[in-house]
Specification:
- This protein is mainly α.
- 77% of the residues lie in helices and 0% in strands.
- The chain is globular.
- The mean pLDDT is 93.
Length: 193
């Protein structure tokens, strides 16, 4: 494994520890592991780009097309994780009766961030065409799928009082016609406001 793969994997280890800590140990030090994990994954991603920098300089059309696509998926990922959720209730309140957020992106599927994460790394791989981009993107996406499986089966049922109901009405990872319609209706209402 390269340092880029190790760094990204260490980031996901931090995510795993952060989530497990949130429902078991509740250690104050481990509460910082989400930020640490995010920094490590970002550093790993920067390593992927640095590895393929020469490819981007030599292929301007490819760089523009897939670079914009990668930025689009990254923006959607950041929006989904940090802005699509009610920030106060999601990240700041320590509420025993927390409810799932089922609107917008979270009507699409229970883990929409994984879709944007995978598409971001696919775009990077198409942009750069390096083995580093392909291997690291696949590895980090696999880690992300493992992470959401832990969340879906262990963490979220203990975190949200209505997670069982959410699982019945919203697909796990791949949207269906009904969930896409619900998501689009939400954003249609938001535009009219």
């Amino acid at each position: 494994m390269t340092w880029v793969e190790w760094t990204g994997s260490a980031g996901f280890l931090c995510y795993f520890l952060y989530d497990i800590n949130s429902v078991t140990w509740k250690n104050r030090l481990l509460q910082r592991f989400f930020l640490l994990g995010t920094l490590l994954v970002a550093f790993s991603s920067a390593g992927i780009v640095a590895d393929g920098w020469n490819v981007m300089k030599n292929q301007p059309v490819r760089t523009i097309v897939f670079g914009l696509l990668a930025l689009f998926w990254l923006a959607l990922l950041v929006y989904t994780l940090f802005f699509a959720l009610p920030f106060q209730e999601t990240y700041l309140e320590k509420n025993q009766k927390r409810k799932t957020y089922t609107e917008g992106m979270y009507a699409l599927c229970r883990h929409p961030g994984v879709l944007w994460f995978a598409l971001f790394y696919l775009s990077l791989a198409l942009l750069l065409g390096t083995s580093c981009a392909v291997k690291t993107g696949c590895l980090l996406t696999a880690w992300d799928v493992c992470y959401i499986c832990l969340q879906d089966m262990v963490i979220f049922p203990r975190t949200f009082c209505d997670y069982k109901e959410y699982k019945k009405t919203t697909p796990f990872l791949f949207p269906n016609r009904k969930s896409v319609g619900k998501c689009l209706r939400f954003f249609g209402k938001e535009r009219k406001k």
